[in-house]
Design brief:
single chain; 369 residues; alpha+beta; Rossmann fold; PPAN-like; Brix; Brix domain-containing protein; rRNA binding
Length: 369
Amino acid sequence: MGRRKRKSKKGSKGAEEPEALTKAPHSFVIKRGKVGKNVNELMVNFRQVLEPFTAMSLKIKRYNVVKDFVHIASSLNVTHLVIFTKTPKAAYLRLCRVPRGPTLTFKVVNYTLTKDVRSALKRPLVYSGLFQLSPLLVLNGFTGDEELRMKLMTSMWRNMLPSIDVNKVNLNTIRRCILLNYNSDTQLIDFRHFAIKVKPVGLSRTVRKLISGKKIPDFGNCNDVTDIMANDNAFTESEGEADEVEANRQITLPQKISSRGNMVNEKSAIRLTELGPRLTLELMKIEDGIMAGEVLFHSLIKKTKAEAQELKDKRQQKIHLKYSRKRQQELNVKRKQEARNKQKTGSNSSDGQSMDVDPEAAADSDSNE
């Protein structure tokens, strides 16, 4: 007997994605050139940070160029390119806005991979649903909006992640956060990635264990429930738990949280567990286009207004020359095509004339012969 044909589900073909999903910023995280094993793993870790709006299994071939990813970006709703490169001196991180730029080039001063961060933690926090929702972005120290570089840095990092409406956000959808701290003295950016966990405040360790259900305390020496609550050891807290009840870590929950023990309009403590990777970045250059165009900022090279204007004029002349050559090439191709068509029609007409012979004239010529 033959196999049964499975019925296709209705609506499986041609189903449109929700508007919130299509309008969310998407990204490609790629590498260019030989970057080595560690930077390649750092690229994979950075993809995980930007989940779920990034391509985790994106394959990069040797013959692929940046233009290939830019051309397919619009059809896939991709708005940003994150490019890792490496030179003998250092590794670099480029953030590109698709399709017209700008491009921000950061020097990776130092970095720590995700596996190294988690191995240093006593209790790493990783579960299946942690990366199914986009992270919350927290910027610290990005002041001085009057400077062009600060404006571009702030807008670039903000637009890479979906925006959040504070009045309508569901707290259960915020499970991770990205912290970017800018040090104005050293002009370095510290990149950190954390998991967010909310715990109730004012509960003993015994009650907390009962609520969480992860580990049941030993009640062998207790005769009654009151013995559990009256036990002084039950209310002692470890050093880490004592930090949680500090005033600067406590919040009053405005809505219900899915974790156990947290109640609406009650105080809870926020705990951050680092997920990795860690990066220390230094802004080196800002370009107007995608890895090309006018240099809006450079940390090493300073130019006067006259020099900048001269470079701008040369760039405009180069662009004008490029387009004029392209226009001339199109005209040459058109002229050759017209000449080819004219030659073809002329050959067809000559063939037609050789075939058109008057039969009476042919008969007279035969009789004369």
